[in-house]
Specification:
heterodimer, A: alpha/beta, Rossmann fold, 6 strands, B: alpha+beta, Beta-Lactamase, 3 domains, 66% helix, elongated
Chain lengths: 161, 276
């Protein structure tokens, strides 16, 4: 079995904790409780017959990534950058944020996740994708569970590779 | 002859007389009635009076009602003693326990200091050693010293940056140890980041009667949870034991924790610190 640290980051209210809960406990709550500091939890998944333990750090949302304490990122094998498809303010700094994250952890896997897919239609998603300077890796809905397991299983597979 | 009945013209005359005499009073009554019936007007008149009384009440409450309130509280306390104790007892217990532990620790530190002075090669120290070996008398200080030894409850070897676990051992089955290691690292990162003290590390977390000592190394740190009290010299000894352990078992850790490393380090931790 291997263990890897994964960071969930992004602006506040984009659904990081909801993705975290959906993945760890397969639950969802409409109630919004802002994360203070950081919350850590673990889930072990099996990929290609091998167990991968994902230590997931759910970091309090910040409008810009340079506000997040750098020490939280250290030692992470992957960063999941989450934004909210319904709020342009959560992806307007995406290029700057990507540069900051790449500078902190140049060798880590970086995934861009567009969350709250249940609240927008396909054409709106297409428009946002075409306008973004970065490409979206996974489109998820923590509410419906769409692509959440796929996101983390994909990461686990990347770790094995 | 006098009669009590009035004739009609008499009544009219009386009414006219009343109208003349009571005219002002009637106007006043009508105005008062209007004021009472209209909530806005009524409020305008009454509010300042109520406010004045309320202010008086606020200012004079302690003087006027102190005795009554005291009696009520006393009665309530007597009636609900059990419930109140239920609420206060655990908090008081913890405070007392913590205080007693703190006091014992201070005594132990003092005793350690005395033992050091007594046995530090002076004539008195020589006498103590003689008495000890000849008559088998143990120093009473030493007895007190041994009264309440600390115990290692849990121990973790954690990768410094990632918070991933290289190995762990515990006296009891605790909740997921990976998560504990992660959260400890998060707390450590937060504290070290928040206070921005370069090259300084968080070294201890105190929780009730529990202490979590953090011994920092270059790429990892060891977190050790202890119960009981620990004197400074015991802490020093434990730090030395940790250094020896690190030299023996943690010299060549892999870049990423794996299952095999976890097993071997956990066994070594258990043998060296928990089973001991």
């Amino acid at each position: 079995m291997i263990s890897r640290k994964v960071i969930l980051t992004g602006s506040f209210g984009v659904g990081k904790t909801s993705l975290f809960r959906r993945f760890i406990t397969n639950t969802f709550s409409e109630k919004y409780i802002t994360t203070i500091g950081v919350k850590v939890d673990k889930k072990t998944v099996e990929v290609k017959g091998q167990e991968v333990s994902i230590l997931l750090w759910d970091i309090a949302g910040e409008i810009k990534q340079d506000k997040v304490p750098k020490s939280y990122f250290l030692g992470a094998s992957a960063i999941i950058y989450v934004f909210d498809l319904t709020r342009p303010s959560t992806y307007k700094n995406i290029s700057t944020d990507m540069k900051i994250l790449n500078d902190i952890l140049p060798d880590s896997i970086l995934k861009i996740v567009a969350n709250k897919a249940d609240m927008v239609n396909a054409s709106a998603i297409d428009t946002i994708s075409s306008e973004l300077e970065e490409s979206i890796d996974v489109i998820t809905s923590a509410k419906t569970g769409e692509n959440v397991d796929e996101l983390f299983l994909g990461l686990a597979a990347d770790f094995l590779n | 002859m006098v009669t009590t009945s009035q004739t009609k013209p008499d009544k009219e005359l009386l009414n006219q007389l009343q109208s003349i005499l009571l005219k002002d009073d009637r106007v006043t009554i009508e105005r008062l009635q209007k004021t009472i019936d209209d909530p806005v007007l009524f409020s305008e008149k009454v509010s300042p009076i109520i406010e004045e009384r309320m202010n008086f009440f606020k200012e004079n409450f302690p003087k006027e009602f102190q005795a009554t309130v005291d009696k009520m509280i006393e009665r309530k306390l007597k009636a609900s003693q059990e419930e109140i104790l239920d609420v206060i007892y655990p908090v008081m217990g913890k405070m007392i326990k913590k205080y007693v532990n703190h006091q014992i620790q201070m005594v132990k530190d003092g005793i350690d200091e005395s033992i050091k002075k007594t046995f530090s090669g002076s004539g008195k120290g020589f006498l103590w050693r003689m008495k000890n070996s000849l008559f088998g008398i143990k120093a009473s200080d030493q007895i007190i010293h041994d009264l309440r030894d600390f115990q290692v409850e849990e121990i973790y070897v954690i990768q410094r940056n990632s918070g991933l676990l290289f190995g762990s051992a515990s006296t009891e089955n605790t909740i997921d140890q990976d998560v504990i290691a992660g959260m400890l690292t998060a707390i450590k990162s937060f504290v070290e980041d928040a206070f921005k003290r370069e090259r300084e590390d968080l070294e201890m977390i105190e929780y009730g009667t529990y202490k979590i000592l953090l011994q920092n190394f270059y790429s990892y740190y060891i977190a050790i949870a202890i119960s009981g009290t620990m004197s400074s010299s015991e802490r020093e000894d434990l730090a030395n034991e940790l250094l020896n352990f690190a030299t023996e078992y943690l010299k060549s850790l892999p870049a990423e924790p794996d299952g095999e490393t976890f097993k071997s380090i956990s066994t070594a931790l258990n043998d060296s610190f928990i089973k001991k």
